[in-house]
Design brief:
Length: 310
């Protein structure tokens, strides 16, 4: 009996020690990342202090949860699930697995979802999960290959032509009229960033920007714009950067922006929300409310594509 008790204590210490150390060091216990056998294509998801391989559709659910807005219609969520799955398989190529950090996709763990949604967790999770499972293993292809399934929340009246802006390999990104987008509350946004905060953000991204700390707006010059108004390149101090990079650094809604000085602070007005390419989710939601299916939504914004089961 004594030997049995000693063995039991040793076993418990062996099991509990890692969790106790994690809690002591970080102040929190690790989310359950117990590894199960996963067959077929998978994504290796990196957690705080561990990693776990999950089936592709489970990861699609995690990404869709991050992109989900409560106003999204079910048919739009199905379209988005197919778009996310398409991008995963495009990046994965012929491999059977891919690391989540190589996908460039934000995602939410179950703990994130519960913290974000609170009492609505079960409702929202079931809606998202059903949207993923109901589309099986469907992906979007052009000439037999998975496309770069770009999307934007709100565009500037029409989405951009992939072939004209990005090159012929993106010919499937159709220029699509989206007049309803102009009525979105997210279409126009004005933000004022203090000179100090603006310089800090730019210098965090580009250490030797050389931007004037007293009047940074004077050191910004738009070099080129695309035909539809999106900023292509701009000079910020010593740095030549794309409009997309500038928007990402400052957390702007889109690369369609104008800049002016406001008492030496920087006032930026943006139009649209997102890159301006691919599916406009605002128009897609209006289509869904009028009875359009996810297939019709996908076919409207991507030209000459097929929706196939992988």
């Amino acid at each position: 009996m004594k030997k049995f008790l000693i063995a039991a204590v040793i076993f418990l210490v062996y099991i509990l020690t890692p969790a106790l150390i994690t809690m002591f060091v970080t102040g929190v216990t690790e989310e359950n990342v117990t590894q199960e056998n996963v067959y077929g294509p998978r994504v290796n998801v990196k957690y705080k202090n561990a990693s776990k391989s999950v089936e592709v559709n489970e990861f699609v659910t995690m990404v869709l949860a991050d992109r989900f807005e409560t106003t999204d219609e079910a048919e739009v969520l199905r379209a988005m699930a197919i778009m996310i799955r398409t991008d995963i398989y495009r990046i994965m190529g012929e491999e059977m697995s891919v690391d989540s950090e190589n996908l460039g996709m934000d995602y939410m763990t179950v703990s994130n979802m519960k913290n974000e949604w609170g009492k609505n967790y079960e409702e929202y999770y079931n809606l998202i999960h059903d949207s993923v499972t109901s589309t099986g293993q469907m992906v979007i292809t052009y000439n037999g290959n998975p496309i770069d399934a770009k999307y934007t929340r709100v565009c500037n009246e029409k989405t951009m032509s992939g072939s004209e802006v990005l090159g012929e390999e993106y010919v499937y990104l159709a220029q699509t009229d989206c007049p309803d987008d102009l009525t979105s509350s997210d279409f126009l946004k004005v933000v004022t960033i203090t000179a100090k905060e603006f310089v800090k953000k730019i210098n965090n991204a580009f250490e030797d920007s050389g931007i004037d700390e007293d009047n940074p707006a004077a050191d910004i010059q738009v070099v080129s714009k695309r035909e539809n108004g999106y900023v292509e390149k701009l000079q910020v101090g010593n740095v030549l950067m794309t409009g997309e990079t500038f928007a990402e650094i400052l957390g702007l809604n889109s690369p369609f922006f104008t800049i002016e000085s406001d008492n030496n602070d920087v006032k930026i007005t943006t139009k649209g929300k997102g890159s301006g390419f691919g599916v406009s989710l605002y128009t897609a939601n209006n289509m869904a409310r009028s009875g359009s299916t996810y297939e019709e939504i996908i076919q409207k914004f991507y030209s000459g594509v097929s929706i196939v089961s992988r």
